[in-house]
Amino acid sequence: MALRKILTEGNPTLNKVCRPVTVFDDRIATLIDDMKETVIHANGVGLAAPQVGVLRRVVVVDLGDEIVELVNPRILEQEGEQDGLEGCLSVPDRFGLVKRPERVKLEAQDRHGDWFEYEGEGLIARCFCHELEHLDGHLYTERAYRMLTEEEYEELMRQNEEESE
Ligand code: NI
Prior knowledge:
With 165 residues, the protein is α+β, with helices and mostly antiparallel strands. Helix content is 26%, strand content 33%. Strands 1-2-3-6-7 form a 5-stranded antiparallel β-sheet, sandwiched between helices. A 3-stranded antiparallel β-sheet has the order 4-5-8. The model has no long low-confidence stretch (mean pLDDT 96). Nickel (II) ion binds at residues 88-90, 130, 134. Nickel (II) ion (NI) binds next to helix 2.
């Protein structure tokens, strides 16, 4: 496994539509393993392949006890609404407020090409929506109804530091 470089906002790769994965070979397995290592190392919740410069429909999401691998994911159903803070490894040092569905059901393939369904609520549902939008070239900043000001961001960082002390 290897760490991959995370591209940041302004890099045109982040605005491109990714192609589906059609060949489930060692290259895809290596990409997924590298993305897992990269998201853990960066303390992120999720990562999409275009964020590491690969225009393929692959996402990893850290569920806490495991990391789910989503190849060619599609949302099947969504329900409810949540309103909260969102950030992105490709948009460092910024947060914004985004409305998302409270519950999302999706289908995806695993690294071998087998289809499965998965349901997520709360933060996981938010993350699924966020990561899937990366695959179509969109960042959450386009969807946020408000970005935090620099002052609000610094206050949030102070609170996080206090909580971790
Ligand atoms: Ni992101």
